[in-house]
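User: quick one, fold this
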Amino acid sequence: MRYALVNPNWTFTGSTYFGCQEPHFPLELLFASDKIREAGHESLVIDAQINALSIEEVRQRVDDFAPDFMVIPTAPSYLFWRCPQPELRVPREWFDGLTHKAVKKALKVAIGPHSSATPSAALRKLDCDIVMRGEPDQTLAQLASKRWQDIDGCCWREESGEEHLSASLGVAPMKTLGALDFADYPVELHSHRHHVFNGSGRGAELEFARGCPWACTFCNKTLFRNSYREREISAVLAEIDALISRGVDYIYFIDEIFGVGKNVLKLLEGIAERNVTIGFQSRIDLWNEGTLDLLGRARCISFECGIESVTEQGRDELNKNCRMDTERLSELLIYARTRIPWVQANLILNEHDDREVIRLWQERMKAHGVWVSEPVPMFPFPGSPLYLKTFGAPPDDFAWERAHRDYRARFDDKGYSDIQEQRPLMIEELESVGQGKAS
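Assistant:
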């Protein structure tokens, strides 16, 4: 069987999306491709974003390949599955545009956060045959050889229109994800260094672990990449060596929470022996002066920490389960800045935090070289604890619309993050573009 795995050329005009819009390695497709080949099938990965390809240019390559399955993610990169754009405009346009000639026989398969949270809505909006809930690294390969009802997270629609919705989620045992060799991926086209704001170099994204042992109210990981798991250190170091040989000098780890457990310290020791710099997201309360020294030796140049609130009460409200007080968190951030060129503390809008207290804390941190974000609004992503707290029920077919309307109602007057569109469109408007309903 043949699988075409297509990463669209993403655009976010009019969206509330606040993730980075630069190309990032589509690790979900690269791991799936390896597993498809291990199962004895053929795969073709096309990254239209890194190659700046149009639908028409990709269509010819897909036609020539004549796939049995055509797979498109509903959000760009595993890195942004936890904060995706609410609308499905881009994946729908690409499914529609690639359904042509030889591809007409291919089954259309969607993966991603929308498929995970609202599979029925994803089937309907994307006019797909199959959507996969959870992590698709290994489950995609199973579509060719197993009964779909036996595949975790597999949801599909019969020709009659009858839907079969799985209550389970695909979860990848991380130890089984071997080292990617990137032989068929255009590494040299990737110049973006994620979360680095000066200098030059060549970047790439990797992952060591998935999931997080905490359950913060705002975090959108529950329906995919939830439980904490680690890969083999040797596999990650092999990937780093392969990328260094291709000219990469900066690695950004897309892990939900980098820094949990002793194995990450062993990984950092290995990285310290290599000529490469690193960056990641973490919690400052996972680190101490000694392990921050190790980060310095491993040439960490970008360290982004979720503080969320400057008060213990605010952090408790967000279910951070933080055992340090604000003064100790501040000490560690300041110490980290003596070892790492860029240290960032992220804050979230919280009713319990006094704006003057926030301002004074920001000034103190910035005086020591630590950058502090302005408090950002929380989006109640379907499947997150915040969605359940806000609406009192699990997500249904209209969960994305409901969450988006709530978000706009709360922040249209107050303003959005400075990296978001300040006049976002409704989901219905965004998803009607390309169907002759809006322009």
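User: anything notable?
Assistant: Residues 3 and 396 are 30 Å apart (CA to CA).
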